[in-house]
Specification:
Blueprint (H helix, E strand, L loop, with lengths): L2 E2 L1 E3 L2 E3 L4 E6 L4 E7 L3 H20 L2 H17 L1 H12 L3 H21 L6 E3 L6 E9 L2 E5 L7 H13 L3 E4 L6 H12 L7 E3 L4 H10 L3 E7 L2 H11 L6 E4 L4 E5 L5 H13 L9 E7 H16 L19 H16 L3 E4 L14 E4 L6 H4 L6 E7 L2 H9 L3 E2 L1 E5 L3 H10 L4 E4 L14 E2 L2 E2 L4 H6 L2 E9 L1
Parallel strand pairs: 1-5, 8-9, 8-11, 9-10, 11-12, 13-14, 13-19, 14-17, 16-17, 19-20
Antiparallel strand pairs: 2-3, 4-5, 6-7, 7-23, 12-22, 15-16, 18-21
Helix pairs in contact: 1-7, 2-4, 2-5, 2-6, 3-4, 4-5, 9-10
The structure holds NADP nicotinamide-adenine-dinucleotide phosphate.
Length: 473
């Protein structure tokens, strides 16, 4: 069985201690991953600081050229990386290919956006003084990423940080390190200066402790659960360590009577079942207005029953495996809880008769508001549909959560669209759009869904310090 290396200061290092990587479609361990201890993380941070001095001195244009080269390398290896991704996280292969393409697009966006880290000159208000605002890279960045989009979510941090002039040390999820090894290989292949990108794996709490305590780390950027985000906030208090946090979500979908039925069903299916429902922006709660409710539910169930479930490597699979056995058991418990409290099971509802961590695409209708699959982040192909009567009621329902990451609405009424834009408490809003995320627009949450934004112009800002320079002439 192959053991994969970490990437430290320009060298691939196989360590004695390893963790294992499991294929969720079979339950089989198929690779080992090298892991490092806290002392080695401290060394990586030191090496990143050395690299920072050279990297920050390059022009943004030159840094962008490195990013373009890494993008080309990932593109060249797209098929191979996609297969590895599917094997380590169960994602259908076609969706892994899309993920590699999106990661490439993030790199290309920030390769160019880095050239627009503008400062400004402010008209002075004291004779003989001039006031300038300049932007400089924050310094060494530590990034922690989750398993559900194992390449793209790391790249969403690495690309803007490198573009801004910051070296990055990435700690990916232990379950999905392999496509990040491929990213390190791409950096190595294009001869990115040593220490500018490093990959560490190992105990999350140990690595995070070094990230939090080491004064050379100037920013921690994290994507994962709200619970771990809270731990990082607590740990950051001692050194006032700046954090960017992309945390959990509980996305509502609001389907209004005036919506185009086909498009509303199609968009909601995308928002629900993409990545087998394991997405922070997945449709967790589907609210449908009474006048269109029966027709929406009928078509949604019809299309859900037609989804092909299987090992992501098999052709045409749309629903892959869940991440682990625990995820399957949680989903069984969600279904049982909802049915007990009065929801109607219209399709699915159980694990299929095959090995691996699968769950049938499931639709529950007439779902009460207090069931667990409505109040908790589900991460499974489980759609919970509930009727509503008025727009005011729908907005109140949508906002009645501690999360505020994404929200979706389907309507053809332009006035309503503006009311929803203004009143929905979510950082990302899709109107008639089940997949609103794009490299050129900000991504992130309100309330307990996080701090800061990735992508867009805002994604670069996260890795820049703002300095005011006052010059007495
Ligand atoms: P998670 O358990 O929070 O893990 C995320 C990352 O944090 C992993 O690399 C994990 O390492 C690490 N980690 C675990 N314990 C830690 C600690 N004490 N200190 C520092 N890091 C620690 O989340 P997940 O299960 O991988 O991902 C699912 C969650 O992520 C969901 O809540 C989802 O909504 C959220 N998410 C948010 C976004 C967004 O952009 N807002 C995007 C995707 C996912 P190990 O793997 O080694 O444990």
């Amino acid at each position: 069985m192959k053991t994969y290396p970490v990437y430290l200061n320009g060298e691939f290092v196989i360590t004695e201690k390893t963790s294992v990587v499991t294929n969720p479609a079979t339950g089989d361990i198929f690779a080992k991953m090298s892991i490092v201890d806290q002392a080695r993380v401290a060394q990586a941070i030191h090496d990143a600081q050395v690299a920072f001095l050279g990297w920050r001195a390059l022009t943004a244009k030159a840094r962008g050229e490195w990013l373009h080269k890494i993008a080309c390398e990932l593109e060249r290896r797209r098929d191979e990386i996609s297969r590895v991704m599917t094997m380590e996280c169960g994602k259908p292969l076609a969706q892994s290919v899309i993920e590699v393409n999106v990661a490439v697009d993030h790199l290309r966006w920030f390769a160019e956006e880095g050239r627009r880290g503008y400062g400004r000159i402010i008209p002075h208000q004291t004779d003989g003084k001039r006031n300038l605002v300049v932007k400089t890279p924050v310094g060494v960045v530590a990034a922690i990423s989750p398993w559900n989009f194992p390449l793209m979510l790391g790249v969403r941090k690495i690309a803007p940080a490198l573009a801004a002039g910051c070296p990055v040390i990435l700690k990916p999820a232990s379950a999905t390190p392999l496509c990040n090894v491929a990213f390190a290989e791409a950096c190595d292949a294009v001869k990115l200066p040593r220490g500018v990108f490093q990959l560490v794996c190992g105990s999350a709490s140990e690595i995070a402790k070094e990230f939090l305590d080491n004064p050379l780390v100037r920013k921690i950027t994290f994507t994962g659960s709200t619970e771990v985000g809270q731990k990082l906030i607590a740990g950051a208090a001692k050194n006032i360590k700046p954090l960017s946090l992309e945390l959990g979500g509980l996305a509502p979908v609001l389907v209004f009577d005036d919506a185009d039925l086909e498009k509303a069903v199609e968009g909601t299916m995308m928002a629900k079942f993409r990545n087998t429902g394991q997405s922070c922006v997945a449709a967790n709660r589907i609210y449908v207005q009474r006048g269109i409710y029966e027709r929406f539910v009928k078509l949604f169930v019809e299309k859900t029953k037609a989804l092909k479930v299987g090992d992501g490597l098999e052709p045409d699979v749309q629903i892959g495996a869940l991440m682990n056995e625990e995820a399957v058991k949680n989903t069984e418990a969600y279904v049982a809880d909802a049915i007990k409290k009065g929801a109607k099971l219209l399709c699915g509802g159980k694990r299929p008769a095959r090995s691996g961590y699968f769950f049938e695409p499931t639709v529950l209708a007439d779902v009460p508001h207090d069931v667990r699959c409505v109040t908790e982040e589900v991460f499974a192909p489980l759609a919970a549909i509930t009727p509503f009567d008025t727009e005011a009621e729908a907005i109140e329902r949508a906002n009645s959560t501690k999360y505020g990451l994404s929200a979706y609405a389907f309507t053809r009424d332009m006035s309503r669209t503006f009311r929803l834009m203004e009143n929905l408490e979510a950082g990302i809003i899709g109107i008639n759009d089940g997949v609103p995320t794009t490299s050129n627009a900000p991504f992130g949450g309100m309330k307990q869904s996080g701090w800061g934004r990735e992508l867009g112009t805002e994604g670069l800002e996260s890795f820049l310090d703002t300095k005011h320079v006052s010059i007495l002439l």
